[in-house]
Amino acid sequence: MQKTIFYYNQKEMIEEKNELNGDLEKNHNIWIDISDPTDEDIANLEKQFSLNKKALDRIRQKSKKPVVKETEHNSKFTILLVLKFNNLEHIESSPLYFYVKDRWLVTIHSNKIDLVTKVRTIISDRKTILESSIDALYYSIISSIVEDYEQLLTAIELKVFDIEKDAQYRPTRRVLNYLDTISRQVITLRRYFWDARNVINYHLNMEKDKDDIKYLQIVYNNIDQLIEMIQSYQDTINSTREIFSSSVSLQINETMRVLTIFSAIVLPLSLLLGVLGLQGFDLNNLDEPPKYLGILVTIMLAVTVLSLFVFWKKKWIFSYDKEITKQDNKKSSK
């Protein structure tokens, strides 16, 4: 277990790694940050700080369900998730546990979360936190976590746009698997955001008389916007699936068109060779070609050229893509 103790008031902020200092407790707010506690460490915390047993059981079980509970008078226990986007297949979620009481804030988490550095950044930007109650620091940490959600969503957004482009121009099975994976991730994120909003909503309604609640008021609007954005991404993924299906159908149609054109050209030539073969055209004896071989080759070339000309006039080949390219160039020049 790694434990860091911060004592702060409007005049100073003191960081220590040792046990609690009785002299500093009297005139300072106290934040205790604990990472990777063992079951024995959690039992010691229960004795030292009189933490709620049910809350500690959730910590032992490594619960990831965001929730806020009043454990005793003027004390509460909160779980919030810190999310990290590693890759498309995996979004890492790490629980962050808060225990708030009077002038005390205890945070418990894994060593994957660098909360000390985050809080230092928060305090350097908002010096007024040192002059406020312990709730100001608690609310500010929640606000910072929600801001990280927005960065996570930006990464998801860029990935969705890349997959949408691939679905249109390179519709492969890999793209379809990506769509299924990111759809599951979006559904999971939406549930996380809903739970986080419930936590924030609890504070805004139950603690609206506190002066420091202002640190959470803007965050509630932000989490609402994130939920709307994640819903729009789900709609985009569904539309991308339709684009994928359309692209596959277009590829199949293009393939069938080429095969049909090829068959339409080869069929009369095959028929012509078959008819002439019935009249004694011997392909095994080419030393003495028949007199009408030149006429045959001329007719075959004429049929091929005529077929290509007809297909071109009907815009089945050559011209269609060029016209689209010309129209795009005209639009871009305007």
What composes the largest sheet? Answer: 7 strands, mixed
The CATH class of the largest domain is identified as Alpha Beta
Tell me the count of domains: 2
Q: What is the CATH topology descriptor of the largest domain?
A: Beta Polymerase, domain 2
Mean pLDDT: 79
Q: TL;DR?
A:
The protein has 334 residues and is of the alpha+beta class.
Describe the structure.
The structure is a single chain. The protein is an alpha+beta fold and 334 residues long. The chain has two domains: 2-245, CorA soluble domain-like (Beta Polymerase, domain 2, 2-Layer Sandwich); 248-333, no CATH class. The chain contains nine helices and seven strands, in the order ββαβααββββαααααα. A seven-stranded mixed β-sheet has the order 2-1-3-7-6-5-4. A hairpin with a 2-residue loop joins β5 and β6. α5 (134-169) runs antiparallel to α6. The longest helix is centred in the last third of the chain and has 65 residues, at 214-278. It is rod-shaped, with a radius of gyration of 35 Å. The model has no long low-confidence stretch (mean pLDDT 79).
Which key phrases capture this entry?
334 residues; alpha+beta; Beta Polymerase, domain 2; 2 domains; 7-stranded mixed β-sheet; 16% strand
Task: Set down the secondary structure blueprint.
Blueprint: E1 2-8, E2 13-16, H1 22-27, E3 29-35, H2 39-49, H3 53-60, E4 67-72, E5 75-87, E6 90-101, E7 104-109, H4 115-125, H5 134-169, H6 173-206, H7 214-278, H8 293-313, H9 319-333
Parallel strand pairs: 3-7
Antiparallel strand pairs: 1-2, 1-3, 4-5, 5-6, 6-7
Helix pairs in contact: 2-3, 4-5, 5-6, 5-7, 6-7, 7-8
